[in-house]
Design a protein that fits this description.
Layout (H helix, E strand, L loop, with lengths): L1 H16 L2 H7 L12 E2 L5 E4 L6 E4 L5 H18 L4 E2 L8 E5 L4 H8 L15 E6 L2 E6 L2 H14 L19 E3 L6 E3 L6 E6 L3 H7 L12 H13 L4 E3 L13 H10 L2 E2 L11 H15 L8 E3 L4 E3 L15 H16 L6 E3 L17 H23 L8 E3 L5 H6 L9 E5 L12 H4 L5 E6 L17 H13 L5 E7 L5 H12 L1 H5 L3 H13 L3 H20 L18 H21 L3 H36 L3 H26 L1 H4 L46
Parallel strand pairs: 3-4, 3-5, 5-7, 10-11, 10-19, 11-12, 15-16, 16-17, 17-18, 18-19
Antiparallel strand pairs: 1-8, 2-8, 6-7, 6-9, 13-14
Length: about 725
């Protein structure tokens, strides 16, 4: 009997020693932390899927193309979660789910007319939707195209399908059943806090190379298939706006007419960066247009200058005289250049950047405007002409066409010098490229009908140091700066420079969630936000998701103090503050150990997403700090004559450098090479920093040990 009791106690202790998240994943049919909100996999008022039920969805074929596409994705999402095929219903009476947009779906309009659904909270509201129970059917209604699409993807996400299901391999937990229980009056999301919320694909060399894998011939990067994947992601994140890739190696977005057509079908508003006026990509379009224009206008002289970014002579100077006062036709040439693009895209939903800068993120130096006063006058003339082009080509008054003016770099002093920007134009303020907003609207600017906006960076390529690789921007800083901006009137346009997108997934989602519903996000701490995402994305219990959030927040706090891309030898003191360098090594080692512990307890289908969203960033930062601190210690200890330690720390440095290769290769070979080429900290087109080489620390070594001697080093604390 004692032996039996001992076995029972031992078994109980063994069960208690298993991490909670491992136990819960074993019983996913009853405990599924990826399901949330009004969706349950256990019971509910509306049965969507069960072992005895195959669902069907009805959508009016006359609804928006983007809505029809999202419905097809919803069918796939339900099958992904339940492994049950979803049918398309030919009539709404036989459907379990009804989807439609007010004014585009006869069934939805009929339900409204019969008072069977209440749309008073969403009608005429930008991107609003409601989810309601109508006689045991799930009805998703949007006030407009994107409202309906957001409602569809909201249901998908609450069912357990993360917006990052494809882009970061966050896989849902299987459920045999899906039920819905809605509050009285249904579930409703009103208008977005910020009207236009989106991302700027920039510094995209790695993304460009990886994206060739989506091209049918494997040759063209940043192709339509890649953009379609990005459009889907943005809509699942309830975003709506995009600036496309703009570097010289990427094809100009509008050079392939299919790109803009697809964006409009999906429901994405297209714009262009701060140096690309009226949707023109100068790096990919200017020279071809210039050649064509000169051939068609042989008698019209142009003032040309050598542009370094294109390494060619260009006529991109808005002037009617050259430096010697001779008449030239540059104004006509540039107006034709802009007009051609507006005409081609006039039927699509766009937000037009206006103003003038250099050809490719270069300073604006007009030949006949040298003083600030002259530049201000010329820029006002340019803006007036751009608005005339927009009005003439689109067929609307200029004040009804979305436009944005961005006082970035050398343009900001001109704006502050008195530049007059039409009241209906959105003024988009910028940050300092590293997360701190330079200027916000004053009282008069807050009253502008065009409102305000923010161009914010979590990725940056430029002097003195670039951020492209590790993705370490602190969420708390984003929250502080963007809520400050919103409270200062920046509620029309938010644009986030995400570089190559990966590995900036966490920052992208947080930024866009702030823009979608800033009031809700204000009340949620960053740690609680991260915890909630971890619970839903990786099916973690409360305790483990709390640990994940603590790791993530501590990591971002640590990495924000010194980005891995910014490391140089000698930045940490090894003799003060209790050995500052070693403390940093120990911090990353602890974070890595804790993150790996969670990773090792996950089911195999959750590991790739976890690696992409947390573990790789911690590993890479840990590798870099070992590379540099190890080298610094080897150099210092050689000077101090501590021969036995020199080679030990030199090896630590070399091991850190080699680990960067190992872990980067681990990323690029993940899932049979799905992400091959997406991560490369050593590529030379856009390296980590201008004057810093990632993993470039050089350690001293010794070939033989000298005589033993006694040395004393005093720690100095600087005050």
């Amino acid at each position: 009997m004692k032996r039996i009791i001992s076995l029972i106690i031992a078994s109980a202790l063994l069960i208690l020693s298993i991490p909670a998240y491992a136990i819960e994943n074993t019983y996913s049919e009853t405990v599924n932390n990826t399901v949330s909100g009004y969706v349950s996999n256990i019971s509910g008022d509306i049965e969507i899927v069960s072992q005895s039920k195959t669902p069907s969805i009805y959508v009016d074929e006359n609804d928006y193309a983007g809505v029809l596409h999202a419905v097809e994705n919803l069918k796939d999402d339900i099958k992904t979660v339940t492994n049950v095929d979803v049918n398309g219903a030919s009539d709404f009476q036989s459907a379990d789910i009804i989807v439609g947009t007010i004014g585009k779906s006869a069934v939805i309009d009929e339900l409204i007319a019969n008072n069977e659904i209440n749309v008073s909270k969403i009608e005429n509201q930008w991107e609003a939707f409601t989810v309601q129970n109508v006689n045991g059917k799930l009805v998703i209604v949007g006030a407009d195209k994107r409202g309906t699409i957001y409602g569809i993807y909201d249901f998908s996400e609450k069912m357990g399908v993360s917006p990052w299901n494809w882009w970061a391999d966050v896989k849902p937990t299987h459920s045999d059943s899906i039920y819905v229980t809605l509050p009285n009056g249904g579930y409703t999301e009103g208008a977005s806090s910020v009207k236009y919320r989106g991302i700027f694909i920039n510094q995209e060399w790695n993304l460009y190379n990886w994206s060739k894998s989506l091209d049918k011939n494997g040759e063209t990067g940043m192709n339509t298939a890649t953009y379609e994947k990005i459009f889907d992601l943005l809509l699942r994140l309830k975003a709506n706006y995009m600036w496309p890739a703009m570097h010289e190696y990427s094809p100009a977005f509008n050079s392939n007419p299919e790109n803009a057509k697809k964006a409009d079908e999906y429901g994405i508003v297209m714009g262009s960066s701060h140096c690309e006026m009226l949707l023109r990509n100068n790096m990919g379009e200017l020279l071809d247009f210039q050649k064509k224009w000169i051939e068609e206008n042989p008698d019209k002289n142009l003032y040309m200058f050598k542009d370094g970014s294109l390494n060619a002579n260009v006529a991109y100077d808005y002037t009617d005289t050259d430096a010697d006062g001779n008449h030239v036709y540059n104004k006509e040439f540039i107006e034709d250049y802009w007009r051609e693009r507006v005409r081609a895209n006039k039927d699509y939903e766009s937000n037009f950047t206006i103003g003038m800068r250099g050809v490719h993120d270069g300073a604006w130096n007009p030949v006949n405007a040298k003083t600030d006063t002259e530049k201000v006058a010329l820029l006002e003339e340019i803006i007036q002409k751009q608005r005339e082009i927009l009005s003439e080509e689109i067929g609307k008054p200029a004040n009804e066409i979305p436009q944005t003016f961005i006082p970035y770099k050398e343009i900001l002093p001109l704006y502050n010098a008195g530049l007059n920007v039409p009241d209906d134009v959105t003024i988009m303020w910028t940050n300092d490229n590293y997360g701190h907003i330079r200027q916000t609207a004053n009282d008069a600017e807050r009253e502008r009908s065009g409102g305000g906006g923010i161009y914010y960076h979590v990725s940056y390529f430029g002097r003195p140091s670039s951020v492209i690789w590790n993705g370490g921007s602190q969420l708390g800083l984003i929250k502080e700066e963007m809520t400050k901006a919103y409270d200062s009137g920046a509620n029309t346009v938010w644009m986030l420079n995400v570089g190559p997108l990966k590995p900036f997934e966490n920052q992208t989602e947080y930024f866009l969630d702030l823009g979608r519903n800033i009031d809700s996000m204000r009340e949620t701490s960053v740690k609680d936000y991260v915890k909630d995402n971890a619970q839903r994305y990786f099916d973690l219990d409360d305790e483990t998701s709390e640990e994940y959030a603590d790791i993530q927040c501590k990591f971002l706090e640590t990495v924000n103090a010194r980005r891995p891309e910014f490391y140089q030898q000698g930045i940490f003191s090894l003799t003060s503050y209790g050995d500052e360098g070693q403390k940093t090594v120990d911090t990353y080692a602890d974070l890595l150990s804790r993150s790996e512990k969670i990773y090792n307890g996950l089911s195999d289908d959750k590991k790739a997403g976890f690696f992409e969203l947390q573990l790789y960033a911690i590993k890479s930062a840990n590798d870099v700090v070992n590379n540099y601190v190890g080298a610094d210690k080897a150099v210092l200890y050689k000077k101090q004559g501590r021969g036995a330690s020199v080679n030990k720390y030199a090896k630590q440095s070399v091991d850190g450098r080699n680990a960067i290769d190992t872990h980067t290769n681990e990323y690029n070979t993940l899932l049979d090479g799905k992400w091959n080429n997406i991560v490369n900290p050593f590529q030379k087109i856009e390296h980590g920093s201008w004057d810093i080489k990632i993993g470039g620390a050089v350690a001293d070594t010794v070939s033989e040990l000298g005589y033993t001697s006694l040395g004393v080093a005093a720690e100095i604390k600087m005050i």
